[in-house]
Design a protein that fits this description.
mainly alpha
Length: about 290
């Protein structure tokens, strides 16, 4: 009596759908995960390779502390202005009665402008609002308005704020418009039935629901500004003491004789931007529960 033949075991194969993300995984490992691990390890190493906390302690020196303070101030100001102006523009598009044909061009421009940064953006602003920029000379010749005499200098803190707003405001618009679309019409109608005014509806219903999205977007814009380096360096060079420029100078070997102190400088940036992004993700998730 012969035994029944055993069924063949299926061969294990790598699902083809995973092949599509292999380039992304390789890119993430080579240019994100491994460099980040190198920075974290290097921040806690001395020059002879031993463990030390001195690099983090040395971040409290005058110039580095000043760079962090200036970077945080710059990020806070641009995040606040970007949220305020972007929210006003998005509200005007969604609720302000503007023609529907305005929305699509605005979103298209916002998608492009939110990613337009670095040297091209710096050159565009220098050519427009720089000391010999088109708008600067036009205001001076046609209206007698001298921006430099009024205290405006593009190559300064507030000049960098104006430049950063070019990509901060569009980013706010892209993120907040879906949240505004999620406000249900029934909520406004219910508030009106109960006798609430428009201001009361916004203060007691809409803004509390949107608050997690607003605060989360503020955190994202803060991280976006804090990590920007190409625009700041191309616009102001080493004149402005902010963390990305100081770190860029360290990479080039212009400052800081201790490379591990440079790793600690980058590690501080990772902690700040990482915390801001975690806040954004948590608040965004909380907001989506209401808007579904």
């Amino acid at each position: 009596m012969s035994d029944a033949p055993n069924p063949r075991r299926p061969k294990r194969r790598l699902p083809l759908e995973w092949l599509g993300i292999l380039p992304f995984l390789a890119f993430a490992v080579l240019f994100l995960i491994l460099p980040t691990m190198k920075i974290v390890v290097g921040a806690f190493q001395s020059q002879d390779g031993g463990f030390t906390l001195q690099n983090l302690i040395d971040l409290n020196t005058g110039s580095i502390r000043s760079a962090y303070i200036t970077s945080i101030q710059l990020s806070l100001v641009t995040a606040f202005l970007g949220c305020a102006i972007g929210f006003a523009m998005a509200s005007a598009v969604v609720f302000g009665g503007l023609p529907k044909r305005v929305r699509s061009p605005l979103l298209t421009f916002s998608g492009v402008a939110s990613n337009f940064a670095g040297v091209p953006l710096a050159f565009a602003f220098i050519a427009t609002l720089g000391p010999a920029g088109l708008v600067t000379l036009w205001l001076k010749t046609e209206f007698g308005i001298n921006l430099r005499a009024m205290g405006f200098n593009l190559l300064s803190f507030w000049g960098l704020v104006v430049t950063y707003l070019f990509f901060q405001i569009p980013l706010m618009i892209l993120i907040i418009i879906p949240a505004l679309d999620g406000l249900k019409r029934e909520w406004r109608e219910a508030a009106q039935v109960l006798g609430a005014t428009g201001a009361q509806y916004w203060r007691m219903v809409a803004l509390p629901i949107l608050f997690p999205s607003l605060l989360g977007t503020f955190a994202l814009l803060f991280a976006n500004a804090f990590g920007a380096v190409a625009t700041a360096f191309a616009l102001t060079g080493p004149q402005l003491n902010i963390v990305p420029i100081k770190l860029f100078a360290q990479i080039r070997g212009d400052v800081l004789g201790n490379p591990n102190l440079g790793y600690a400088l980058a590690f501080g940036m990772i902690l700040i931007t990482g915390l801001a992004n975690v806040i954004y993700i948590v608040l965004r998730t909380r907001s989506e529960r209401w808007l579904k």
